[in-house]
């Protein structure tokens, strides 16, 4: 995008809305940002832009929870898998042709939107976490490396661990923080983290935080389930558009 004012408006509007979604339902900032920015630029550029606001907002979510030490002891094998998978897979988003990367991003949004609407009831026994955690982490990392989307299959898996509400919010913050740092490392490793994108990413922090504050205000006035339904339905539509644009033409 060559128009600086248009680019600034796109980034500010995207992260304001993405922050609002996160403020209402506790997740969705990177997913929304990748989806909307992916309509206007290659996914690798969108991924570079989301790094700083994603890191700041997810650290806020991570450090605001009640039991970080216990979560780290329980989830560190999954986090290692996330790092390994993301760094290994980052070459896909960095080196893929624009159409392929956009199509993969659309497919990831489609899967996440369908999973969010279906809300399958899953349960992972504690004894299975030793082997399931690293596998889910590695799979999440590969999806992150290919699309810049952190949520599949990490979010359904964490939701199936039987965590309390506050623990789950903090666990999501941990997973997204690790994914963000791993994606930054993977993009840098493949030379896909330009200085200009890093500067623009810093500027995106303020609208993201403003959106989160507005989302917290809205959460008290709108039923979260209604908003969640609209969010996942919107992801489906966005996923179809991106997948068609990238793979169907």
By helix and strand content, what is the structural category? mainly alpha
Q: Report the principal-axis shape.
A: globular
**Main sheet characteristics:** none
Q: Distance between the terminal alpha carbons, to the nearest Å? A: 22 Å
Q: Radius of gyration over alpha carbons?
A: 17 Å
**Count of individual beta strands:** 0
| Mean of residue pLDDT values | 85
Helix count, DSSP H or I runs of 4 or more residues: 11
Write down the domain tally.
1
- Strand content bin: under 5%
Low-pLDDT ranges: none
Please estimate the helix content: over 70%
Order of helices and strands: HHHHHHHHHHH
Structural description of this entry:
By secondary structure, the protein is mainly α. The protein is 80% helix and 0% strand. The chain is built from eleven helices and no strands. It has helices at residues 4-25, 29-37, 43-63, 68-95, 98-118, 129-147, 154-159, 165-189, 195-203, 205-219, 224-247.
Describe this structure in a few short sentences:
This protein has 249 residues and is an all-alpha fold. It is built from eleven helices and no strands. The chain is 80% helix and 0% strand.
Which characteristics define this entry?
80% helix, 11 helices, mainly alpha
Topology overview:
Blueprint: H1 4-25, H2 29-37, H3 43-63, H4 68-95, H5 98-118, H6 129-147, H7 154-159, H8 165-189, H9 195-203, H10 205-219, H11 224-247
Helix pairs in contact: 1-2, 1-10, 2-3, 3-8, 3-9, 3-10, 4-6, 4-8, 5-11
């Amino acid at each position: 995008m060559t128009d600086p004012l248009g680019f600034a408006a796109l980034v500010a509007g995207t992260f304001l809305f993405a922050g609002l979604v996160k403020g209402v339902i506790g997740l969705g900032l990177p997913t929304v940002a990748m989806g909307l920015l992916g309509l206007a630029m290659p996914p690798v550029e969108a991924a570079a832009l989301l790094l700083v606001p994603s890191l700041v907002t997810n650290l806020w979510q991570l450090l605001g929870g009640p039991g970080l030490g216990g979560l780290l002891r329980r989830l560190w094998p999954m986090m290692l898998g996330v790092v390994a998978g993301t760094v290994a897979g980052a070459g896909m988003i960095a080196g893929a042709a624009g159409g392929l990367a956009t199509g993969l991003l659309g497919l990831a949004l489609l899967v996440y939107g369908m999973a969010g609407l279906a809300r399958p009831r899953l349960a992972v026994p504690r004894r299975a976490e030793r082997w399931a955690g690293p596998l889910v982490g590695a799979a999440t990392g590969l999806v992150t490396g290919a699309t810049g989307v952190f949520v599949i299959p990490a979010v359904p898996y964490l939701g199936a661990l039987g965590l309390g509400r506050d623990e789950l919010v903090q666990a999501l913050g941990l997973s997204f923080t690790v994914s963000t740092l791993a994606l930054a490392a993977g993009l840098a490793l493949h030379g896909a983290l330009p200085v200009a994108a890093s500067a623009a990413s810093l500027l995106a922090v303020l609208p993201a935080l403003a959106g989160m504050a507005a989302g917290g205000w809205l959460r008290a006035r709108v039923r979260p389930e209604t908003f969640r339904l609209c969010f996942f339905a919107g992801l489906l539509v966005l996923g179809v558009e991106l997948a068609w644009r990238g793979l169907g033409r």
